[in-house]
Amino acid sequence: MPHIEIEISPQTNIRELVAALPIAADVMNAFGLGCSGCGVSKYETIEQGAAAHGLRVEPIIAALAQARLSGFVPSIDKEDRRPVRRAPGEFSGRAKIAHVVPVMSGKGGVGKSLVTALLAIGLRRKHMRVGILDADITGPSIPKLFGLHEPLLVQADPNAKTPQGQPLPLMVPAVSRSAIEIVSSNLLTDKEDTAMVWRGPIVSGVIRQFYEQVVWSDLDYLLVDLPPGTSDAPLTVLQSLSIDGVVLVTMPQALATMIVRKAANLVHQLKKPILGVVENMSYFAAPDTGKRYEIFGPSYADRVAELAEAPVLARIPIDPEKARLADEGRVEEIDDPICDELAEHLSAAIAARPKPKETISII
Question: Which one of 146, 158, 295, 319 has the largest count of C-beta atoms within 10 Å of its C-beta?
Answer without folding.
Answer: 146
